[in-house]
Give the backbone structure.
Amino acid sequence: MALKAVFLNCSLKSSEEESNTDVFIKDVQAHYEKLGVESEVIRLADYYIAFGVEEDMEDGDEWPEILELVKDADILILGTPIWLGEKSSIATQAIERLYGSSSVTNDKGQAIFYNKVGGAVITGNEDGAKHSAASILYSLSHIGFAIPPNVDAYWVGEAGPGPSYGETGGNDFSKAAIQRLAYNTYHLANMLKEHPIPAEGNTL
Amino acid sequence: MALKAVFLNCSLKSSEEESNTDVFIKDVQAHYEKLGVESEVIRLADYYIAFGVEEDMEDGDEWPEILELVKDADILILGTPIWLGEKSSIATQAIERLYGSSSVTNDKGQAIFYNKVGGAVITGNEDGAKHSAASILYSLSHIGFAIPPNVDAYWVGEAGPGPSYGETGGNDFSKAAIQRLAYNTYHLANMLKEHPIPAEGNTL
Amino acid sequence: MALKAVFLNCSLKSSEEESNTDVFIKDVQAHYEKLGVESEVIRLADYYIAFGVEEDMEDGDEWPEILELVKDADILILGTPIWLGEKSSIATQAIERLYGSSSVTNDKGQAIFYNKVGGAVITGNEDGAKHSAASILYSLSHIGFAIPPNVDAYWVGEAGPGPSYGETGGNDFSKAAIQRLAYNTYHLANMLKEHPIPAEGNTL
Amino acid sequence: MALKAVFLNCSLKSSEEESNTDVFIKDVQAHYEKLGVESEVIRLADYYIAFGVEEDMEDGDEWPEILELVKDADILILGTPIWLGEKSSIATQAIERLYGSSSVTNDKGQAIFYNKVGGAVITGNEDGAKHSAASILYSLSHIGFAIPPNVDAYWVGEAGPGPSYGETGGNDFSKAAIQRLAYNTYHLANMLKEHPIPAEGNTL
């Protein structure tokens, strides 16, 4: 059975506009296709996602359907632009909503996100990628995801205003990082699918 | 063959003084003993560690012998106190020195820290644990360590001055976090020992 | 003419629900009343604030009316709860929207937020206050606010789940921090009102 | 009487080697010279600075003489390189040592760093400047420094390995940031010299 990956694109723009984060995500997906990983991209700005930390905030909240995709996936990648050196507000909100499931358990009593693998992809005109990655990867690991090595793929330009990823297409450094992220999420997700983390010492 | 864990205690105090981080580490070690994991604690403040980002800064630099222990271990835990809401300067230095090996490879061409597992333990009178954990875990994952779920064990007190971990012994929350960190580093290290990450798409 | 302060309460809850951040803000306001500072609290979750980095994102975006209050104020305090060790998504969004005015200038050519004073108040069950404060205060200073000493007032409880600020009322440490934040924003705002920063070397 | 500025250069390299941070600092000093601000650069790696949080850790600790320069200055600028997206271990140590004076008061009972102005200059091959700046500026404000607007001057290159500041000399963006940092620290330091923060509501 093919591995499934979900990308949450946390661009501030809905899909009516082009997103540099989306261009970056496509570069990851190109590897997943070769590896036989099925993947889907959710542009969060297209949905009405309520503020809060419940699994379902009701009153039209569309997070629950996104959450189902995450629960069904083997790999979750948060993609975010950088604003003032940090991940976007929509990325922050995605983490708050994921955190809202942090006491939900699988049938063995572990957190529901156990045996899933997390990663982060980040684009910005300049500075802030590692800070954003650290925040995303830590949050995912804190709620149950496993973090493989080298799953912080990013591209940023020189200090100050400048071209975006969509315009530059990145560089050798970002291309190598994209490849490592794709392969290592694939390798670890496979491993955890075949050898799930024993429910010993880690149930809630 | 037993798994090996190395704790780098990044307290600002040498072992002539008591370290709350050390008390915390002992609580992790108690689990490792039951699990048959051999562990060793290095109090970095006891050593002369040169500033820089080479594997060996020479002129009496004692990092190389510590690095050998890390290279030989399956699990690396950085333990740090909190100062002004962040990990200690010695923890920062330990990360700089580990980063100095980031282009060194194993016999398959992957970063030398591949197939090792990382974690963080943090104590402080108050506030700053998650920030410190995010920084440590991100840095380790960036240079090749795998980060299992729930390997950010910490205790901090209420805002403001107050008792230390050595005085309080933590609470149920920190005890559960310690257990999860010990078991999940053990589970993942075992898994990676039996099933190393394939050298496909991730060599340097 | 009295100084004006605006509090942006970045709770995830609208004002139908009680907000611990709001209780905290009231403790700051008690000082402002004695000092003759007029203050107003905006619960951002009560408004429809569009995602984006334009001053007016249109289509019903209610940020422009909030922005007017900020532009009219001498003091801006961002108040936020802590989720997973960080400021809320609404606080992140508020910063993105403020950043959207970062190239707007006053009549001397300086950034529009020059001669205004910024501060941060933070509440949470546990850990994350300093990280949140650092992010908020840095962002404000980067776009033109002056940051007085000791304007990061917070209360958090011991590690793990526990009572909220509304239940505990804080402690001596948080009370002293609240007082310093109130007085220092007042002192600096007064100073900058009487002696605005010369438009020399800092125009856009 | 001329304003005095102290730069703490937190490069990992002693002054036997060239420091990009130092080149950057010189660009700030060029403005200070025109403004009549006397300035001095301390390369911290040239000194033996003990780990700890006391004003004087004794046994050869050379921090006390550096601390005297800081106490005597009107402006303190921390300069740091970036390693793995963060300020250097020496910058972290400088903050720990400054924090060691956080309960020392001036003759009015305020923290000793009141009426001084802080700033941050940061250089790196790539990514991490804003994260480093946020940490430095927050820490300084927390212990009593005032933070003027736009005092986070930095230069970083495109993602990945690449030339350093010394080789590129920065760009228009970094030059403008350097100018704003120099002028705003000067303006605010002047203001606080003539109009010190009243000792009302903010003594320790």
In short: The first strand of chain C starts at residue 4 and ends at 9. Residues 76 and 98 of chain C are 11 Å apart (CA to CA). The domain at 4-194 of chain C is CATH 3.40.50.360 (Rossmann fold). Chain C has one domain: 4-194.
